[in-house]
Request: fold
Amino acid sequence: MSQFTSYEVRDNIAVITLNSPPVNGLGLGLRAAIMDGFDQATADEKVQAIVVASAGKLFCGGADISEFGSDKAMTSPTLPEVCNTLEESAKPIVAALNGMALGGGCELALACDYRIALPAVKIGLPEVNLGILPGAGGTQRMPRLAGAQLALEMITSGKPVGAKKMLAAGVIDRIHEGEGSILDAAVQYAQELLDTNAPVRSCAQMSVDTSELPENFFAEFRKSIARRTRGFYAPERCIQCVEAACELPLHEGLAKEGELFRECMNTSQARAQQHLFFAERAATKIPGVDPKTPLRDVKKVAIIGSGTMGGGIAMNFVNVGIPTVILDLNAEALERGLGVIRTNYEISAKKGRLSEAQVEERMNLLQATTEYSEIGDVDLVIEAVFENMDIKKKVFQTLDEVCKPGAILATNTSTLDVDEIASVTARPQDVIGLHFFSPANVMRLLEIVRGGKTADDALLTTIKMAQAIGKVPVVAGVCWGFIGNRILEPYGREAARLILEGATPAQIDKVLYDFGLAMGLPSMIDLAGIDVGYLTRQGNQEAFYGRDPGYAAICDKLHELGRFGQKTGRGFYIYEGRDKKEDPEVISLAETLAAEQSITRREISDQEVLERTIYMLINEGAQVLEDGIAYRSSDIDTVYCNGYGFPGHRGGPMQYADEIGLDTVVNALNKYRDQLGAYGEEWFKPAPLLEKLAAEGKTFKEFTA
Reply:
C-alpha cells in the first residue's frame, strides 16, 4: 500500500499495519498512509471491521520528533484529524497493541473502538515531559475510558501504565496471553465482536464518571503535585484539559485541548524541555568517531574502593545483572561497604520496589576482595578512591600490572587530570574518566572524560555501558573540573563573595530556589560538605587564590571552624535534625572577613544575586565550549539539568542564555565589571565566544566548533 503501512483483508477484516521504523513515529507520511488504509477499508463493502497493528517491536512511539517545529507537523492529515476520523468510523476498529503505545501512539489507540494487548504492553502520555500536553484527544478520551483520577495522574506525570492496570481501568479490553500472534488474536477478536453484534464505540457518547471523585478533587490534586511541577507550564494546562473532559461534550473538550496545546507550544518551558530531549540524544554522538566502531565486551566489572561512592557505583552494575567485584585493601571498610549496599536494597524491598529474592540475587552478583590478583579477569575497572592524585596514580600503576589487555581502566575523579593518571600506565588508550555523581546509584548523570589518548572503542563502549545502567552520558575533555565542576566553580565563587558584600545565605538560597533550582548555593554546599569543597579547591590553588586573596573566604573560615555543613550540624546554617535555621554568626564572620579584605558591605538586590551567579555559569560555559571541553552547548545543559539541579523548565544555562539573549548576559557582565572595581575586572570579563556570538546576534545553539 505505501512505504509506511501495509494493507490486507482477511475475510471480512481489514488490517492496516504500521511499518515506519524504528518506532512508527507519526510523521506526515504515516498519518497519510493510515488515512489511505482507512478510506480503502471504509469503501470496501466486504470489510466489516478494521484492525490497526504494528510490524515493529512496539505499537507506536508517538509523534515523529524530526517534524518538531516544522510545517509537516501541522500539515493535513494532522494527528487530531486522523484520531477523530477513526473515532467516527461506522465500522468497529480494534487496536492490536504488541508493544509500547506512547503519546500520539496512545491517542491513536484510544481513538479505536476496542484494544487488545500483550501482557508486557505499556500505555503512556508523556507529552508533559516535552512541555506540552496530549493534543490529539488524549486528555479527552483517556478520562472517559479510565476515569479522571488515573487519567490525570498519567497525563501530568507522563509515566506509562502497564496492560493489566489498563485492563482493570477499562482502557484495554482484552489481554492476549495464549499462543499465536497478537495480530491473529486481534483479527479473531474483531470477528467475535461482529458475531456478537458488539457496538461501535465512540468517546463522543461517553461521559466521565465523576460520582466518586472527592470534593475539591482538582484543587487537592494541584496541591499534591505543586512541588514536583514547580516552574513548569504544561501540568496546569493538563489539569484544565481533564477538567474540561469532565464538564464538556467531546467536541468542545477537543477544542479546549487544541487551544491549550497551542498555548503550551509557544512557551519558553516547552522550548527548554524539547531542547533537553534532543540534547540527551545528541550527547552520545561524538564528532570524528565512527558510531559503528566495534565495542568491547563488558561482562564483569571491578570497583576499587568500598565507600559511599564505590558502593553506589557497584549497585548500578548488579542492578542490571553484571557481576561486580568490590576491592578494598581495608577488610573492615569492605565489610561495612557491603553492609551499606545490602541495607540500601533491603530498604527498597520494604518499600515494595524489590522482592527479597531480588535482593539476594543482586547481592550474589557482588564479590568482595582485598587482593588485586582477584580482578585480573574484569573487562572494566572503576577506581573510586580518595580524590588525591598521588593515591590515584598508585592505584593505576597496580591496575596496569594486574588487569588483562583490553580492560578499560576508569577513574571516578571529579576534577583531576585524567591524562596525568593515564601517564603512569603502559596503556593510556584504555584509560578514561567516569565521573559518577553522588549518590551514584540514584543520580542520572555520568560525565565521561575522554583522555588525549583514549581509544575510540573504549569511549563508545563506556557510552553504551552508561546507557545500559540507566545513566545519561555526556563526554567531556580533560581540564580541571571537566564540564560540570569547572562551570560550578564561578557560580560558587560568586555566592561566597556576595555573602561578604552583604547578601545573606537565605537571600541567595531564595533567589536561586525561586529561579527554579532544587536548592540554592549555600544549602547545596552544606549538603555536599564544606570540607569537600575545601579539599577540591586545594587541588588548584594557583588558579583561584592566586587571583583573589578573598577567594572563598567565608567557606574556608567555616571549614577552619569545623563547620562542614549538615554532617556536623553547622555550616552556613544551623541544623537540628531535618530543620535548619539561619545563623547570625555567619553574618558576623562575613563582616569580619569583609573588613579584612577592605570589601564594602551594602544591600544586594535579588536581581544582582541572580545575575552574578547564573550568568557566571553561562560565561564559564561559553569558555568551556570555546576550549573544546564540551562538544556542543547542549552537552553543558544536559550536565547541569541532570547533575546539578538546574531547572528543566529553563533547559540548562546555555539554553536559558539563548532564550533571554546573549547580549543580555554580556551587558550584565560588563556592568558588574565596571561596578566591582578590581574584583570585577578580574572575574567579569565576558568569554570571547560569548562576546562574539552576542555581537553577531547568534545563539549558543548555532555554535559549532
Remarks:
- The chain has three domains: 5-265, 301-476, 484-702.
- The radius of gyration is 28 Å.
